[in-house]
Amino acid sequence: MTEIDGISSQILSVLERDGRISNIDLAVRVGLSPSACLRRVQELERSGVIKGYRAVIDRAATGTAFTIFVTVGLSGQLKKHAQSFEAVMAATPSVRECHNITGSVEYLLRVDVADLATYKDFHANVLGTLSQVSSITSHICLGSPKDERDLVMGRR
For residues 21 and 19, what is the distance between their CA atoms, to the nearest angstrom? Predict the structure, then answer.
């Protein structure tokens, strides 16, 4: 396991906000030489601490700005129930996140769709067809005053 000291923690913090920052600018921000900074970043990548880099997409511009958080309860606690449910969620593009959670239900989903009619179709024709699903509760997102997935170069 890679040791995360203060400088590595700073590197990770900067990269979370701006994964496209140049190595030179990153080195300046964390107080390292460019070569030392690059070695640190490469070690964080090699060890799997940094899993990858991504673009932050404006969901409104893509027509999928309608977000619903969905809790899903399963009818059984067998591994096969969870695996088959997770496989369907992994194959469904509108399901942006699928979390196995504790509590009264087994899963929390983040679903991004164009509109309520599209979500109704997902609810009826995806979740509603799975025999292992025993409960579905939908929570329509009215706004996200804090969403760190949307941070880009320190802006929202």
Answer: 6
68 closest CA partner among 125, 108, 101: 108
Say what the alpha-carbon torsion angle 148, 151, 153, 155 is, to the nearest 10 degrees. Answer: -120
pLDDT tens digits for 83-116? 999 999 999 999 999 999 999 999 999 999 999 9
**What pTM did the predictor assign?**
0.80
Tell me if 130 sits within 8 A of 85, measured CB to CB.
yes
Contact criterion met (CB below 8 Å) for 138 and 119: yes
Give the Cα-Cα-Cα angle 89, 81, 87 (nearest 5 degrees). 25
What domains, with CATH codes, occur in the chain?
Answer: 6-46 (1.10.10.10), 59-140 (3.30.70.920)
Structure tokens at 110: 């983040």
Q: What are phi and psi of 136, to 5 degrees?
A: -135, 125
